[in-house]
Write a structure and sequence with these properties.
Two copies of one chain form a homodimer.
Chain A: H1 3-27, H2 31-42, H3 46-59, E1 67-73, H4 79-92, E2 97-102, H5 112-119, H6 121-125, E3 129-131, H7 140-156, E4 161-167, H8 171-177, E5 182-187, H9 191-199, E6 208-211, H10 219-236, E7 247-249, H11 258-275, H12 277-303, H13 306-320, H14 326-337
Parallel strand pairs in A: 1-4, 1-5, 2-3, 2-4, 5-6, 6-7
């Protein structure tokens, strides 16, 4: 065997061993292997993509056995405190809790990468918990796709409660909604925060609104806010839904109301599993995932095409100045794309 | 000249004459030619498409000089009565009023095609008005694109108020919003209708809510509904907007409140033209139009591809049953699409 082919052989073997090791490890719940698998999934390198794909393909039948919960809210609403509090509550009951974050652009609001572990100090030390810091940067769509795959990997590793945190910038909530079973919106008392939820249209798909920091002198105001949200949620109630969305108060810091939040999640799971909505939603999500993936690739292929990149600034200008119709602009671009 | 080439010559000449005639006619405000131009635009025949494209390209610099108003509301809210009332009010003041309809699927709610002219009996007889019945059937996206082009044609024909009516099925409102300057939502008193506006998320982009049928024994209830909407609109107020969206009452049937609606539109036009929002919106719309067009064509090309049509049922099934990852599914489909 030549030196070259021996090296190639060793590399191939090593690759195979790695994937096998990772899969074996993560199915046993080995966090190191779980972390490695997620790193491969998040990697942009072609070789890693292949390995990630192989892992995913092989663990797929082992995933799905969890309740996936999305948690959203404006910065300062107390998302990490709630996750710490709820996560510990669940870990103590024997649940395996994985915490993931969809952070559309970490550069915008620094801190979350620095501090995921320190933010959730107690939870991060609990043997039943696995906290994955936010992926750094990257396109929103990409992060979204990777987070969905990360959920599958965590489930295969035995985690049966997945908490997906997202920082409220609108688009990311829509993406998280499309990968979770239950979506909660964390708010504070005071009109400013209420407006935020409403404006972004997040309220429309929240399965529950949680008014946090309902403690001390704030308790009274929180009750009032709760009533306001109950009214708004009534307005927004979807027709084809057997779930009446509640507004709850809690104090994540003092652990008050956490039990009630979890009861609400279980009630939701029970109701929607009985009605079939739970499974139906997961099917819709899987389908949407496929088509989103296709659309994104189509657009990426098109707009990153050399000829299109060269043509588009001038064509866009002409369309805006009403010197060219959209039909003509489109024709020129597609002729270039298909190499006509 | 052979018989063949003479025929060909005559056909070519006729085609040229037609387009020239149509353009000349419609720029003079000839309704017959305007109707013919719109028919060409709505036609799916390849030859018509070419003519339509030529007309559009040549009249483009003459379009844009109007206020484009979208009117939405549940069936029965009184949209046609309002359009008749508002349209006549404007025609009498010397405005040229064109009425278009975006009817996503005429089959679903019969009647609008039958009755556009009879629904607006007086307006349809006024020399300053042009009413174009709803396009019959067709894909939602297609209708949307044609309606936008129809607006341009009407503007080139001298119409300076364009009323675009849409029947509330959610998606069509979003499309109409993307082609008008001012969007009004017509509602009735009573919780049922209020809910409808909220549920579909239409409230979020309404520039005004009009509570219709505020007459007789209904007048009191309408005032109450008005106050409720004012409150909701306050909740939904967008941050980056200098326009405070009002809730108005009117009786389209008795012509009450129509003057106030028009004053509101003019006030909106003045405010947003001064702030630049008006022109900015039109630019955003033109850009969105281009990119929507590109995306639609990309998806149509992909999903109508023979190989994709054959592959997708099985692949979708495998993804739903979690037997295949989305990445792998996507790879198989794209290899087929690009002929690899």
């Amino acid at each position: 065997m030549s030196k070259f082919s021996r090296n190639k052989f060793m590399m191939e073997t090593q690759r195979e061993e790695n994937v096998d090791q990772i899969i074996e490890g993560l199915l046993k719940g080995d966090r190191m292997m779980l972390s490695r698998a997620i790193t491969l999934i998040e990697s942009q390198a072609g070789r890693h993509k292949k390995q990630a794909e192989e892992i995913l393909q092989r663990i797929m039948t082992r995933s799905g056995n969890s309740i996936r919960i999305g948690i959203s809210g404006v910065p300062g609403a107390g998302k990490s405190t709630l996750i710490e509090s709820l996560g510990l509550h669940l870990c103590k009951q024997g649940y395996q809790v994985a915490v993931l974050a969809v952070d559309p652009s970490s550069a915008v609001h620094g801190g979350s990468i620095l501090g995921d572990k320190t933010r959730m100090e107690q939870l991060s030390k609990h043997p039943n918990a696995f906290i994955r810091p936010s992926p750094s940067g990257g396109r929103l769509g990409g992060v979204h796709l990777r987070t969905r795959e990360t959920i599958f990997i965590c489930e295969a590793a035995g985690y049966n409660v997945i908490l997906v945190e997202t920082v409220g910038v609108g688009q990311s909530e829509v993406m998280v909604r499309d990968m979770v079973d239950f979506f909660m919106l964390l708010v504070l008392t005071g009109a400013g925060d209420e407006l935020q939820g409403m404006k972004k249209g997040i309220m429309e798909f929240a399965d529950a609104v949680i008014i946090n920091k309902a403690d001390g002198p704030n308790a009274e105001a929180a009750k009032k806010t709760q009533r306001e949200y109950q009214q708004i949620l009534q307005f927004l109630q979807p027709a084809a839904n057997d779930w009446v969305r509640p507004a709850l108060t809690c104090s994540a810091l003092y652990g008050e109301g956490i039990e009630q939040i979890w009861k609400t999640v279980l009630e939701f799971e029970k109701t929607t599993k009985e009605s079939g909505l739970f499974y139906n939603n997961r099917n819709i999500q899987a389908k949407a995932w496929l088509y989103t993936n296709i659309r994104e690739k189509l657009e990426t292929d098109f707009f990153s095409h050399e000829k299109i990149k060269n043509l588009i600034p001038d064509i866009e200008k002409k369309v805006l100045e009403e010197k060219m119709t959209v039909t003509k602009a489109s024709k020129i671009l597609f002729n270039a794309f298909y190499g006509k």
